[in-house]
Design goal:
Layout lengths: L1 H23 L2 H27 L9 H10 L1 H36 L1 H15 L3 H12 L3 H24 L4 H9 L4 H35 L9 H10 L3 H29 L9
Helix pairs in contact: 1-2, 3-11, 4-5, 4-7, 4-9, 4-11, 5-7, 6-7, 7-9, 9-11, 10-11
């Protein structure tokens, strides 16, 4: 009971510290300090609550046990990370988003192609990954190629919709101005339509980031070699190695957060002129 009370006291104290820092620090420093302190607070509170309430290891391991597993099984975690994230998710993400951008260029010049593809995209985007995964495994095998194919199918149409909307974001006055100066279609694309579409393109990349991670991990539940994050989670649950399961989840969360943060940095550098990036 004392640990539970200590958890509430710790929560209240660090909550007050966050409020003080948010008021006294600069906006740039507060954006870093406040989330870090909040995250550490949450981890410490969970640690004390699990210990104080004697929560079973099967229900929720202690955060300290998860951290220990991260360091003791780092070689296994790295192999799973390389197989699932670097090979399956990243390859499928690049191929799917790149192909969607190329098709969006064609659709922006063809009204027939645009009207035909977008309804099809809504249909394919609604297909569950658990239905696609077994089919892709039968087509491409048990390696990372089938996981990359699933990621391509999950990322292609959300990216396509964003790119098509972005390439159509210019108004008639801007297009007429370029025609007045006898700009070629390539010049219009590079100097007008593509810069105007960048916020939409980057938004599509951000939307596809969690889709790629989810698709690659879930696909490994339906067939994979003896390595991979989804494979490890599936087998570890069966053997009740819940600390390893949570370690894999933490690695996936860190990878997704890091890649999303990288996209935010790229977005700020490329679309600094957009109203959404103005302070």
């Amino acid at each position: 009971m004392m640990l539970v009370v200590s958890a509430f006291v710790l929560w209240a104290g660090l909550w007050a510290l966050n409020i003080i820092l948010a008021r006294r620090l600069s906006e740039q420093h507060a954006r870093i300090a406040v989330p870090v302190i909040f995250g550490l607070t949450l981890v410490l509170v969970v640690e004390l609550m699990v210990r104080g309430l004697n929560v079973s290891f099967v229900i929720l391991p202690k955060p300290s046990e998860m951290v220990v597993r991260l360091f003791t099984s780092y070689e296994m975690l790295w192999e799973d990370f390389a197989q699932t994230i670097l090979k399956g998710a990243l390859t499928g993400y690049i191929v799917g988003c790149g192909a969607a951008l190329m098709v969006a260029f064609l659709a922006s010049w063809s009204d027939f192609l645009r009207r035909g593809l977008l309804p099809l995209g809504n249909f394919v985007a609604a297909l569950p990954v658990v239905g696609l995964a077994p089919i892709m495994v039968m087509w491409f095998g048990f390696g990372w190629e089938s996981k990359a194919a699933i990621v391509v199918s999950m990322c292609f149409f959300p990216m396509l919709v964003n790119c098509v909307q972005g390439l159509a974001a210019t108004n008639a006055i801007e297009r007429d101005l370029f025609k007045t100066y006898a700009a070629s279609p390539v010049q219009q694309l590079g100097l007008l339509r593509l810069p105007a579409a960048m916020p939409f393109v980057l938004n599509g990349l951000k939307v596809c980031t969690p889709l790629a991670l989810i698709g690659a991990i879930v696909a490994e539940f339906f067939g994979s070699p003896s390595v991979g994050m989804g494979f490890r989670i599936k087998t570890s649950v069966g053997s009740l190695s819940l600390d390893l399961v949570w370690a894999e989840i933490i690695v996936a969360a860190i990878a997704g957060t890091g890649f999303f943060g990288l996209l935010l940095i790229i977005e700020r550098s490329l679309t600094f002129w957009h109203p959404s990036q103005r302070r």
